[in-house]
C-alpha cells in the first residue's frame, strides 16, 4: 500500500499531511507495514514541514534520538515547541525534558516546568511528572515558571 501512495505522489504532486503521516506510520512498522526507519523519519519530517503537529512530534523524536535521521537536538527542540504550541501534550513534555537535561540547549528549570505545566494542561496524564518536577524547584523558580507559562499560547 505504501508503494501505491508513493507512486501516486510522484505522478500527482505532493501528498496531504495526513497521507504523509499514513506513509510514515507504515514505514514505522504500524499497521503491518515493513519497517524502514529512514523512510519513516523522512515522511514524518515532510508532514512536519506541511504543518502537521503529529508529524512535528514524530520527526522531532527521530531527530532527538537519531532514529532514521541524523541527530539534531536543536531542530528537535524547535519542532517539539511548534507541536506543543499547536496543542500536542507529548511534545510539551519532551521539550520540558530537554530543558531539564540541557541536551541541545542550556538547562532551564523554570522553562522546563512551564512546559511540564503545558503538557499537564493539554493532557492530565502528565500531571504527575509536573508535580514531581515542582517539588525540586525553589519558590523563585516556580514563580518564574508560572510567569513563563502565562506567556504561552496554543492554537
> What form results from the Cα inertia axes?
elongated
Question: Helix/strand/pairing class, anyone?
Answer: mainly alpha
Largest sheet geometry: none
End-to-end CA span: 33 Å
Helix content: 55-70%
- What are the secondary-structure elements, in order, as H or E? HHHHHHHHH
Provide the residue-averaged pLDDT: 89
Q: Which oligomerization state do the chains in this entry correspond to? A: single chain
**DSSP strand (E) fraction?**
under 5%
Q: What can you see in these coordinates?
A:
The chain is mostly helical and 155 residues long. Helix content is 70%, strand content 0%. Helix 4 (53-65) packs antiparallel against helix 5 (73-85).
Topology:
Layout: H1 2-12, H2 17-27, H3 37-49, H4 53-65, H5 73-85, H6 89-101, H7 109-122, H8 127-134, H9 139-150
Helix pairs in contact: 2-3, 3-4, 4-5, 5-6, 6-7, 7-8, 7-9
Quick structural gist:
By secondary structure, this protein is an all-alpha fold.
Features:
mainly alpha, 70% helix, 155 residues
Amino acid at each position: 500500500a505504501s508503494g501505491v501512495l508513493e507512486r501516486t505522489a510522484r505522478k500527482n504532486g505532493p501528498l496531504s499531511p495526513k497521507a504523509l503521516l499514513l506513509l510514515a506510520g507504515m514505514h514505522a512498522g504500524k499497521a503491518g507495514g515493513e519497517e524502514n526507519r529512514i523512510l519513516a523519519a523522512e515522511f514524518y519530517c515532510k508532514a512536519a514541514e506541511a504543518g502537521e503537529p503529529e508529524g512535528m512530534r514524530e520527526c522531532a523524536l527521530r531527530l532527538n534520538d537519531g532514529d532514521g535521521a541524523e541527530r539534531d537536538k536543536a531542530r528537535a527542540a524547535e519542532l517539539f515547541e511548534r507541536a506543543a504550541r499547536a496543542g500536542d501534550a507529548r511534545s510539551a513534555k519532551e521539550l520540558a525534558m530537554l530543558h531539564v537535561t540541557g541536551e541541545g540547549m542550556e538547562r532551564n528549570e523554570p522553562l522546563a516546568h512551564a512546559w511540564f505545566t503545558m503538557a499537564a494542561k493539554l493532557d492530565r496524564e502528565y500531571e504527575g511528572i509536573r508535580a514531581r518536577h515542582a517539588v525540586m524547584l525553589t519558590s523563585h523558580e516556580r514563580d518564574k515558571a508560572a510567569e513563563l507559562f502565562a506567556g504561552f499560547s496554543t492554537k
